[in-house]
Structures are given as structure tokens and as C-alpha cells.
Amino acid sequence: MGTKSMLEVHQFPCLEDNYGYLVHDQDSGFTAAVDTPETEAIERALKEKSWQLTHILNTHHHFDHAGGNLELKEKTDAVIIGPRADAKRIPGIDIQLGNDDIYLFGKQEMTVFETPGHTSGHCVYYFADSGIIFVGDTLFALGCGRLFEGSAEQMWNSIQKLLTLPDETVVYCAHEYTQANAQFALSIEPKNKDLIKRAAEIDKLRANNQPTIPTTIELERRTNPFMRPNSITLRETIGLMDGTDVEIFAETRQRKDNF
Ligand code: ZN
Ligand code: FE
User: In the beta sheet, which residues pair with residue 110?
Assistant: First the structure.
């Protein structure tokens, strides 16, 4: 196999509360933009790192994720990779991928998981060797995406796929929503000690204008209400002690929508 270096991730704010990401593989020189929220910010980041854009990885079709596709493709000739299930809505898509497909990014294996719920064709991108995943609007720190095009059952299935990843997996979400998510999480699981501690850390980070992303699968597993339908205190709060995990997840999502 030979030795592979770890992928380098460069994170930068875009638009109101999006994050842009560049993923760089030193061995091949490949650089991918994960989604294209803002062309200018992405170009600035590329320049700053002296990297050349070779790929775009789209998680889903929303404008704050694929809005810069065509302009960047025209300027850089980057190959656009996106969800097969939603190919018609991904501008300029070149390579369509679906569940469990593996794409070689240089020598780095990138595994695709379909995670419908937020949109019907949402995909996430997992680089096992580097232990990182880009989850778009499927999972947020202490939250999950709104159900615009899918059912609670679909979204819970999608989130369960993420729960199978190693604890230490580093999770890159597409938005900085964490502080508001923490308020909701505390309201629904007020006795969760890990959550209480994390909420305080989040307040400190945001007070200093620092990102709360990335997070990890372990941290989310311990504190994210959308990953904890079997938590007793969470079930107590919503008054569904005997509900199925999907029912608890659905009720939690609905409460967040109305929070
Ligand atoms: Zn979205
Ligand atoms: Fe978004």
C-alpha cells in the first residue's frame, strides 16, 4: 500500500452561518471544496493555502451548498461529485455517487453514505483513513437538519449510519448552529452532565467568535438529543417512556421546530 499522508482540512466561514471546507491530499495534490456556499470565500481560501481546486463534493442541492458550482467549475475545471439520487438538482454534476460507493481521492478512499431526510438525495462523505466525515446538513453539533424532503424515519435511519462510525471520527457540519442547538438540547435533557459542560464551553467559544465545529461522533453520541432517543431523561421530558426510537426522534425533531 505504501504510506499515505493524512488529508488536510481547511475550514472557513461563508455567508451568514455556513462553513466552507477545503480537503487537500498532499500525495496527489487533489483539493476538494465540500459544497460551494460562496465562490469568493472559496477562492480566497484556495489562494491562502496555495491549493488548486480539483473537485467539488456536494452534499445536497440547496443553494447554500451548490450555488457556487457552475462558477467554480468554469474557473477551475473542477470535477463535480454529488448524489446520484439528486443528480438533476446538482448544477454541473460530473460523477454521480450513491450509498456505499467508494471513490478514490488520490489514494484516499472516500465512502459515500446516502442520508435522506433534510433533502431526498442528501449524501455525506467519509474518509476512513483520516477519520473524518463531511455531513452537510444531516447532522449538526447538538442538532440535525430540518426535515424538508424526508420523514423522521428516513432521517433517523440516516443518523443511525453515522452512529456506526468510530467514536473518534471528526465530524464537519455545514453550519454554525451550535449555541442555539445547545439551548434546545438543555431544555430536553437538563440533567445530562456532558451536555451541561459542553454548553458552557460552546458559550465561551462563541463569545470569542470561535467555531464550535468540528465535533466528534463520541461527543454527539453523548450530548446530541437527535442521537439519544434511548436516553431516559430525554424520554421523561417528552413523556414517551415506551416509544420506539423513531417515535422519540420524530417528537424531538418536532419540538425543536417549535422551540
Ligand atoms: Zn440544506
Ligand atoms: Fe445548509
Answer: 103, 127
